[in-house]
TrEMBL record:
PROSITE patterns: NAD_G3PDH. The active site is at 183 (proton acceptor). NADPH binds at residues 11, 30, 100, 132, 247, 271, 273. Belongs to the NAD-dependent glycerol-3-phosphate dehydrogenase family. It is an enzyme of class 1 (oxidoreductase). Its EC number is 1.1.1.94. It holds the Pfam family NAD_Gly3P_dh_C. It is found in: Cytoplasm. Keywords: Cytoplasm, Lipid biosynthesis, Lipid metabolism, NAD, NADP, Nucleotide-binding, Oxidoreductase, Phospholipid biosynthesis, Phospholipid metabolism. One of its GO terms (cellular component) is cytosol. This is Glycerol-3-phosphate dehydrogenase [NAD(P)+]. One of its GO terms (molecular function) is glycerol-3-phosphate dehydrogenase (NADP+) activity. NCBIfam families: PRK00094.1-2 (NF000940), PRK00094.1-4 (NF000942).
Length: 325
């Protein structure tokens, strides 16, 4: 089975490396330079420097070339997903969504974008605690692989699994994608706490109460709690909130240390999805009547309406309540 990968950032390239363990891979890149780097130098010098790429990987800027593939993984930033899928043209083969975000403006989850733009494609979601560079180096990792069709999931999981990369099958598409989108926003809050020097207890409190927000929001959208408690939800939340290797966590840390969001976003080449997801997540939560105070605080910080210390103080001064809330 030939695998197509749409998006040659760090994660698309790492997934290409995993999939190349058991067959050919064609990766589409937005930039000519990235295609030349991969084809001529066997390295993605812009987005995943220092990793020697498998000879099984070929790169192209021509989306139509992906028609030679049996399945495609979508790994663009969430805000570029719709127009890239549109440019792909009609696609009837499996489409595996790997981006972690919600579309601004339309408030669509990635599965909702794909259902509208590619209505004939069987959809799957691959999401979990995975820093791209570790996966590309062959270090062990496990992810949730959600697909409503169990037989298709089995075939795809066997093709995508690597010697140290373990996809676990689930049929809860919404649960898998919502965990990955929400954790990016919460990781910014953990970074802010770190930047302010608030300590490890504060981080654990933010992770636990952030997980409560993820579950309230996810279940209101139709996700299953057991999925949110798995690799793609809690697993990814813990990873992303605990390491400066996370772009979202390190973005929050810089905010906490006094940098402005605008300065941090200027000329940024890599994506910190939580910055784009925060406004749309908060808006969706308000529509649903779901309380998400940590996500609200992140939005206020990103928009420059609150200073980091005031945002943390506001969270601490909320009325005392039951842990079940
Ligand atoms: N990096 C990781 O460790 C990791 C792990 C799991 C999931 N993800 C998710 O994968 C998705 C992609 O992130 P990444 O880390 O691979 O990206 P990245 O930050 O490494 O690179 C940015 C990407 O955006 C692309 N891009 C820029 N402008 C574009 C446009 N106009 N149209 C289409 N693409 C454009 C670039 O080509 C590049 O692929 C995100 O949703 C991210 O949350 C990332
Ligand atoms: O660097 P981040 O914050 O985008 O996180 C990368 C992955 O999503 C971690 O699972």
């Amino acid at each position: 089975m030939k695998i197509g990968i749409i998006g040659a950032g760090a994660w698309g390239t790492a997934l290409a490396q995993v999939c190349a363990e058991s067959g050919p891979v064609l990766i589409w890149a937005h930039e000519e330079r990235t295609v030349a780097d991969i084809n001529d130098h066997r390295e993605n010098r812009t987005f995943l420097p220092g990793i020697k790429l498998s000879p099984e990987i070929a790169a192209t800027t021509d989306l139509a070339a992906l028609n030679s593939c049996d399945a495609a993984l979508l790994v663009t930033p969430a805000q570029h997903a719709a127009k890239t899928l549109q440019a792909l043209g009609p696609w009837q083969r499996p489409l595996i969504l790997c981006c972690k975000g919600i579309e601004a403006g339309t408030k669509r989850l990635m599965s909702e974008v794909a259902e509208e733009v590619q209505p004939d494609a069987p959809l799957c979601v691959l999401s979990g605690p995975t820093f791209a560079d570790e996966v590309a180096k062959g270090l062990p990792a496990a992810v949730t692989f959600s697909c409503a069709d169990g037989e298709l999931a089995n075939r795809l999981v066997r093709r995508i699994a690597g010697s140290a990369f373990r996809p676990y099958h689930s049929d809860d598409i919404l649960g898998a994608e919502i965990g990955g989108a929400v954790k990016n926003v919460l990781a910014i809050a953990c970074g802010v706490a770190d930047g302010l020097g608030l300590g490890k207890n504060a981080r654990a409190a933010l992770i636990s109460r952030g997980f409560a927000e993820m579950v309230r929001f996810g279940t209101a959208k139709g996700a299953r709690e057991e999925t949110l408690a798995g690799l793609s939800g809690l697993g990814d939340l813990v990873l992303t909130c605990s390491s400066e290797a996370s772009r979202n966590m390190s973005f929050g840390k810089a905010l906490g240390e006094g940098d402005s969001a605008a300065a941090l976003l200027a000329d940024r080449v890599t994506v910190a999805e939580g910055v784009h997801t925060a406004p749309v997540l908060v808006s969706l939560a308000r529509d649903l009547g779901v309380e998400m105070p940590i996500s609200e605080a992140v939005l206020a910080l990103v928009e420059g309406r609150l200073a980091p210390r005031d945002a943390m103080k506001a969270l601490l001064q909320r009325p005392l309540t039951s842990e079940a809330n």
